[in-house]
Amino acid sequence: MLRVGLTGGLGSGKSTVAEMFAARGVHVISADEVGRRLMQPGEGVYRQIVEQFGKEVVRADGTLNRPLLAELAFRQGRLDELNRIVHPAVIAAQEEWANDLEAREPDAIAMIESALIFEAGVSGSVPGWKDRFDKIVLVTAPDDVKIQRFLERIGTGMQVNAEQLKLFEEDARSRLAAQIPDSEKIPFSDYVIDNSGSLERTRQEVDEVFGRLRSA
């Protein structure tokens, strides 16, 4: 089985690219979805976060206050604390999924979609991070495009005033600053998909990479 890491910074469009790969028969698991599940009440990750960050990160209904966690992580310099709790558990769940898939479909392509594949290695929360993958696919776009996409996504269905828009933009820039620049990731990636143009162009690049993965 071929194990592929699909990564890209905030607003790069990696989730859209992941959907394109899935439509071509690639098995895809999202690190974000796994993380959200593990952060639900009753999960070990949830308990560790509350112990580390305090009961103020818990809403009245018992769920985690994710915007407050993001504030603590990205604006108050506690991202490493959060990652050291979440990353190992998320990766363990991904490995379990991949191992089960390999047992059922040894010729499959298993793709793990995660924004922080490189960051997990640099932080030290995931030793030997690159050894988990046979190939790495990086989705790129200019920072101004990433920020615009983030603002459009977060503002969907909302009426946002100028002050709120400024805060959202500051949040996007804080998140991007916490991520390794694409220029530093490219030399360590096997394939790079430029997602700054049209969807049709992106589909063409996905088709090309998919063909190479199938023959790898």
UniProtKB/TrEMBL annotation:
Subcellular location: Cytoplasm
GO biological process, one term: coenzyme A biosynthetic process
SUPFAM superfamilies in alphabetical order: P-loop containing nucleoside triphosphate hydrolases
GO CC terms, sorted: cytoplasm
EC number: 2.7.1.24
Keywords linked to the UniProt accession: ATP-binding, Coenzyme A biosynthesis, Cytoplasm, Kinase, Nucleotide-binding, Transferase
Main location: cytoplasm
Enzyme class: transferase
GO molecular function: ATP binding; dephospho-CoA kinase activity
Gene3D superfamilies: P-loop containing nucleotide triphosphate hydrolases
Pathway: Cofactor biosynthesis; coenzyme A biosynthesis; CoA from (R)-pantothenate: step 5/5
Pfam families: CoaE (PF01121)
Catalytic activity: 3'-dephospho-CoA + ATP = ADP + CoA + H(+)
Residue sites binding ATP per the record: 11-16
Job of this protein: Catalyzes the phosphorylation of the 3'-hydroxyl group of dephosphocoenzyme A to form coenzyme A.
Similarity comment: Belongs to the CoaE family.
NCBIfam families the UniProt entry points to: dephospho-CoA kinase (TIGR00152)
Protein name (Swiss-Prot/TrEMBL): Dephospho-CoA kinase
